[in-house]
Amino acid sequence: MICTNKDKLEAFMLHNLKEKRYRHSLGVEKMSTFLAECYGIDADKASFAGRYHDIAKCFSDEFLNRLIREFAISDEYMNNQALAHSKVAEALLKYEFNVEDEDVLAAVSGHTTGRKGMSLLEEIVYVSDAIEENRDYPELKTLQNQAKTDLDGACLFIMDYTIDLVQKKGRCLDKDTIEAREYINDRISRREYD
C-alpha cells in the first residue's frame, strides 16, 4: 500500500486545489495509469503519483517558502512556485502522509523538471502532466499518440518546448531539465544506432 491514510490525503487535496487544478490532477492520474499499462509498470504507483503530483500547486509563494524552510528543501526554490511545488508536494507526501515509496516520491518530485536517469515511472508522470486530456494545444493529440509507443520521443518534445518557453520568458532554466533533456536525447540517439 502506497499511503495508509488516503482519505486524509484526498481531503487535503480537495481542500487545497482549485477546481481546474483538481481536474488536471485527475487527468494526469488517468494518463499515467494508461501509459503505465502500455509500458508494463505498476499502474497503482503511476495512478497515485499522477493524482497527487500537484497537491502543493495552489499554495501561495509565502506558504511554499515556509514549507521549503520547514522541510529543509534547497533555498534555490524560494520564491519559485513553478519549481517549488513539486519538491514541497514530495515532502508533504513523505512527512505528512507517510508515503514511503521512493519511486512515487521521485515521480512527484521531478514532474516539473525531469532529471538525469529518470525512471520509467518518473518519465510517465512527467509526460502525462503535459498530455493529459484537459490540456489544449495544437500538438496534444500527436503527443498523446506518440507517448503510447515512443515515450522518449514525446518526452524530448515536451522538454524542448519547455526549455524554449522558459528561455523566451527570460527565466532561469533548472539544471535538472537540461540534464534530463541530454539524458533522453542520448538514449534516443543510442537506440537509433542499435
Plain-language structure description:
The protein has helices at 6-16, 19-39, 43-52, 61-70, 81-96, 102-109, 120-131, 140-149, 151-168, 175-193. The protein is globular. It is 70% helix and 0% strand. It contains ten helices and no strands. The N and C termini lie far apart (39 Å). The chain is mainly alpha-helical and 194 residues long.
Key attributes of the depicted protein:
194 residues, mainly alpha, 10 helices, globular
Q: How is the topology of this model organized?
A:
Blueprint (H helix, E strand, L loop, with lengths): L5 H11 L2 H21 L3 H10 L8 H10 L10 H16 L5 H8 L10 H12 L8 H10 L1 H18 L6 H19 L1
Summarize the structure.
The protein has 194 residues and is an all-alpha fold.
| Number of DSSP-assigned strands | 0
- Indicate the overall shape: globular
Structural class: mainly alpha
What are the segments in which pLDDT stays under 50 over at least 5 consecutive residues? none
Distance between the first and last residues' Cα: 39 Å
